[in-house]
Amino acid sequence: MENTLTQEQLVCSFCKIEIEKDVVYCPNCGHPENGTDKERAQFFAKRAMQKNKNIDAGQKIKSARNTLFVLSSLVIVFGFVMYSSSGSTIELAMNFFVAFIYLALAFWSEKKPFIALLVGLLLYITLIAVSAIIEPLSLVKGFIWKIIIISYLGKGLYSANELRKTTTGDTVQ
Ligand SMILES: [Zn+2]
Questions:
Q1: Tens digit of each residue's pLDDT (9 = 90 or more) over 38-76
Q2: What is the pTM for the complete model shown?
Q3: Burial class (CB in 10 A: 0-12, 13-18, 19+), 117
Q4: How remote is the CA of residue 46 from the centroid of ligand 1, in Å?
């Protein structure tokens, strides 16, 4: 009866990966397989904390993604307002192009949040800089909104970076 158990490959009781019989910590997830109760309690407390952090990061990324969606529609609305006064089709087309990029980045941030949000933030800042060069007064217009948008994108970017760090390995410590 006992034999069937010992013949079976030993697995980590937490992540189910195969482990050596006398190993203290699972090399994959860090679960103290042969550790003390205190170590086990610490392991689960740490896991729970990490999970909360990840949920928090996920929400910040979501806010940043929504910011990109909002930016995309703002650019369209703004484009039409400008068009109604200037009648320039090229300007309108340019606005559509920028709106399309924001939209694409918003969707892309589902898969690659860090790169997508980074590109989005850089694009936004570049466009502010370009319009400030053309029309210096534009920098002051909606200044608070610019700060809010940058902070949303920035927070999402920061969280995406944190998440990227934790998913590429150092979940153990
Ligand atoms: Zn494990």
A1: 999 999 999 999 999 999 999 999 999 999 999 999 999
A2: 0.76
A3: buried
A4: 14
